[in-house]
Amino acid sequence: MxxxxxxxxxxxxxxxxxxxxxFNLDQEEYGVDVLKVREIxxxxxxxRVPNTPHYVDGVINLRGKVIPIICMRKKFGLIEAESxxxxxxxxxxxxxxxxxxxxxxxxxxxxxxxxxIQPSPAVxxxxxxxxxxxxxxxxxx
Length: 141
Description:
Blueprint lengths: L3 E4 L9 E9 L2 E6 L3 E6 L13 E7 L2 E7 H4 L12 E7 L2 E7 L1 E9 L8 H4 L9 E3 L4
């Protein structure tokens, strides 16, 4: 993995071991705190909702709960791609609300030291909400 963007708290976790769910978008690998991920599901039928931001694909009904679905390709300004058998929705807890995030594929759970997370350069975060990027890690292999 190289240059993974991680959504973890940047507090006193420098030496702490952090677990991330790694996922792919446009041939790049990213990671998000495993504790935020509630479940990973295959692509269901998504109901479109009018007058939503361009990156909101719509909503799904997941066991009686209506969950908004955010397309991460659109959110990050990447070229849109058709869903395939690897496409997944990561259902995550965001400020106490469940939200789904469409990604190209989910890879694995990785463990890294908090000291491996480097601050993201300002140019990387330009145009993306700051809460989306907590840092960058470099891992070869």
